Description:
With 368 residues, the chain is α/β, with parallel strands linked by helices. The chain contains 13 helices and 13 strands. Strands 5-6-7-8-9-10-11 form a seven-stranded parallel sheet. A four-stranded antiparallel sheet has the order 3-2-1-13. A two-stranded antiparallel ribbon has the order 4-12. Helix 1 packs across helix 3 and helix 5 crosses helix 6. The protein is globular. 50% of the residues are buried. The structure holds N-succinyl methionine and magnesium ion (MG).
Amino acid sequence: MIIEAVKISHLRMPLVLPFETSFGRITSRDCILLEIFSEGLTGYGECVADRDPGYSYETVNTAWHILKDYLIPAVLGRNLHDADDCQAMVANVRGHPMAKAGLEMALWDLIGKAQSRSLSSMLGGVRTKVEVGVSVGIQETPQELVKVVERYLQDGYQRIKVKIKPGRDVGDVGAVRAAFPSIRLQVDANSAYTLATAERLKPLDGLDLLLIEQPLAEDDLWDHHKLQAQFATPICLDESILSVRHARQALEMAACRIINIKAGRVGGMNQGAAIHSLCHNKGVPVWCGGMLETGVGRAANLALASLPGFSLPGDISATERYYQEDITNERFQLNSDSTINVPKAPGLGISINEKAVKRFLVKAESMS
Ligand code: SMG
Ligand code: MG
């Protein structure tokens, strides 16, 4: 399909509740909505880079620059048959995986619409609904955290992830475990510890956690290897895994036993699916991470999580957990068994609420 035009829109959407991690607190979420136009069809994509470089070095502004000055010019007017073509055309740009993944997502949507196939079926998905959990930010006090967790359990979430940071770790997680002895529970430190300070996390090993996510720095596979050797609980890597190669090396050096897959972090669905296959072949569990996506990225995450090796619940919650008003007409609901349905319609299977896009718009630019 010849790419005739591409539009990028920087959006800022208020969150239902503030979200606090070890690197900061946000009350709204920025993203870039991509639209690519070909043969009378529009493909939508979401670039998940946030306003600040807290989770990764990419921000909505670096992604804007890379998309506008490099990635979009690389595909405009060219004939693309699939995501492999897209990946080949942007391969000269080093890094910036979130910018690349946003563009690739829009292409998947476009091609799915042209071929009348859902993203899930194009990727080789095997599930019509996927198990999900909720990621709970750091609260004022451990008691407040227990209350918030209780509310999510009442909503029907059967897996809880608690964000931790130095000083707000063992006490918080211990309080949640004491209140709910049998729930599926895991923690995420977003790189807030060193090998030395992670010593204090040792009591987590007694709390029957599914996993400890990204305790150490993102560029520190080796110390994760040393830490994993000290813990019975599996370490799961998120920020450290930016490619299939990183995933293979992390597994070879036993730096983790589980991998969180986010298409945005690894440069696209193609690489996300490839990391899934690598892990599936080795019997290593994977799950789908989240970046507080709008309905656009949420649809893509559900399709990715429908692949057979996604054996742990994803950070994919219902729309109402994040946004009162979303930019998709479709709202994703939690089923009573803590699952969300995988979209069936062609491409991402979503349609855009243009009024909402206008309301949240910071700036837009079209290129043809
Ligand atoms: O989408 O439910 C969601 C958020 C899940 O905790 C979540 N994401 O490190 O896994 C992670 C964080 C990254 C985003 S923090 C703003
Ligand atoms: Mg994480």
